[in-house]
Design goal:
The chain is built from eight helices and twelve strands. With 294 residues, the chain is an alpha/beta fold. Helix content is 26%, strand content 23%. An eight-stranded mixed β-sheet has the order 2-8-7-6-9-10-12-11, with helices on both faces. It has a four-stranded mixed β-sheet with strand order 1-3-4-5, with no helix packed on it.
């Protein structure tokens, strides 16, 4: 999969969000369209209509003549503005809950972190809070990724579905599924694909037996990748959001038993689950233990 460059993009306002100014050369912003755009730059004026035109032109130096332009099929840019809207929590509560979610990832300086369907505000707080080796933002919205990339050139961006994220960035040791109900796949499929991209646990077969006996501080050292699933406002607000945005939100938050079973089938162990009227959080560890002889 080759890199697609967002070069000199003119982003026009949508009804829901004021866009950033012209974004000069957004490197490492990868897209599901890359397979047909090798060696091209991408520009996409986002108009007030939900349908936008994707325009691709050859990235030819200015002194080599006119740059050819190819119009691709119209595509839909969905309204994701609700991700940054919180009518339930005060600003202080919102920040506190976000910090709590981030803390569950136990990010370290050498961590490789994936954020799926996150809000810009969540990525802002994540970047400001802890350094890491790699931060990859995965989202369906090119517009949202462009906003992230404008602010943080070091953050890599992938436009497309979680299950198609290239393995070249793996293994991840922290994965935030910030808005699971927007993913158009069954839990079994999601965990199956995550298992291929997660850092495995410690390197001996006896770990599943001794892990429950270890103190918590040692347990985190031997466990594999952590997956954090969250919703800042809980199930009731999600239902309201789903009625307002049925094209984006296509499923519910899983209950504890459903999540536990789907996760266990792919070697994920639930270590924490919180469901309150205004908050949802699940933390899972990847416990697929690799033998040193493998």
């Amino acid at each position: 999969m080759n890199a697609m460059f967002l070069s000199s993009c003119s982003l026009m306002a949508t009804p829901s969000r004021k866009p950033p100014p012209c974004i000069p050369s957004l490197h490492h912003c990868y897209s599901r369209y890359n397979s047909c755009c090798s060696g091209y730059y991408l520009s996409f004026p986002l108009l007030s209509s939900p349908v936008h035109r994707l325009t691709v032109g050859a990235a030819t130096p200015s002194n080599e003549g006119v740059v050819s332009v190819i119009d691709f099929e119209d595509f839909m840019e969905k309204d994701w503005s609700f991700l940054d809207s919180d009518r339930t929590n005060s600003e202080e509560e919102h920040k506190k809950k976000t910090d709590w979610i981030i803390s569950k990832g136990e990010i370290a300086e050498k961590s490789r972190v994936l954020v799926c369907t996150g809000s810009e505000e969540f990525v802002d707080q994540l970047v400001d809070s802890l350094p890491c080796q790699l931060l990859l933002a995965v989202h369906d919205s090119l517009f949202l990724l462009a906003g992230i990339k404008e602010k943080y050139d070091e953050v890599k961006c992938w436009q497309g579905e979680l299950i198609y994220v290239p393995e070249k960035w793996t293994p991840f040791d922290v994965i935030f599924l910030y808005f699971l109900p927007a993913l158009p796949f069954e839990l079994d499929r999601i965990f199956g694909e995550l298992a291929k991209r997660c850092l495995p646990g410690a390197l001996w077969e006896a770990l599943p037996i001794i892990l429950p006996l270890l103190p918590e501080v040692l347990t985190s050292s031997f466990a594999g990748a952590r997956v954090v699933i969250s919703h800042l406002q809980g199930r009731e607000v999600l239902e309201q959001q789903r009625r307002q945005h049925p094209d984006v939100i296509i499923s519910d938050l899983p209950d504890k038993l459903t999540l536990q079973k789907a996760a266990a089938d792919h070697s994920f162990q639930m270590t924490e689950f919180v469901e309150e009227p205004g908050f949802y959080l699940a933390v899972l560890n990847f416990c697929d233990v690799k033998n040193p002889k493998d």
